[in-house]
Amino acid sequence: MVKKTARSGITLLTTNLIVKAIQKNDFLSRLDDEQIAMMVDLLMSSNYKPSEEVIKEGSEGDSMYIVAAGELIVTQSGRDLRTLTKGDVFGELAILYNCKRTATVKAKTHVHLWRMERQTYRTIITNKSKKKREQLMGEVISFIRRMGKGEHFGDNQILRTATCTADGPVTCFSIDKE
Ligand code: CMP
């Protein structure tokens, strides 16, 4: 029996194929586990027939792809460059470098692909940067709060969210939770 993941309905075998493809690709391997999980959830499935063009050299790029099944040929100015098979990633260059498609990619056989749109990829990357920024801002705010005589701290936290450091000699009264 083929197991399915709870959220997306993608089979575990497919998830493994996608994760492996991401990890062996130079630029996608920089994604962390959380970003890879989001990517797996947001990929869309598409199919092509033999000799159908998936990418045209010189055109604008809006998606990148992972080969789920089948074979494709990469050509540049009419020259064969490479055959792509299951687990290969392609179409990433125009998305990453904001350039025109550097080569043509055509289906040799019936092909099943996992596709991610440029905007979805950008959202995954931007979300992570936004979270990082927010976390840094939190840390900065706690550093800039200075307390003096008569003020109290540490009163309402179960898990500590900030560090309080003595800046010079300090005497405190403490009282335990009970
Ligand atoms: P992109 O330029 O977005 O669209 C065409 C894709 O073909 C490109 O991304 C790469 O994924 C792939 N490609 C380009 N040049 C080569 C090459 N020399 N060998 C293999 N794949 C290539």
UniProtKB/TrEMBL annotation:
Protein family per UniProt: Belongs to the cAMP-dependent kinase regulatory chain family.
GO function terms (MF aspect): cAMP binding; cAMP-dependent protein kinase inhibitor activity; protein kinase A catalytic subunit binding
InterPro entries named among the record's database cross-references: cAMP-dep_PK_reg_su-like, cNMP-bd_CS, cNMP-bd_dom, cNMP-bd_dom_sf, RmlC-like_jellyroll
Keyword Nucleotide-binding (UniProt): yes
PANTHER family, per the entry: CAMP-DEPENDENT PROTEIN KINASE REGULATORY CHAIN, CAMP-DEPENDENT PROTEIN KINASE TYPE I REGULATORY SUBUNIT-RELATED
Name the UniProt record assigns to this protein: Cyclic nucleotide-binding domain-containing protein
Protein source organism: Poecilia reticulata (Guppy)
Every Cyclic nucleotide-binding domain range: 27-134
Keywords: cAMP, cAMP-binding, Nucleotide-binding
Pfam family, one: cNMP_binding
A GO cellular component entry from the record: cytosol
SUPFAM superfamilies per record: cAMP-binding domain-like
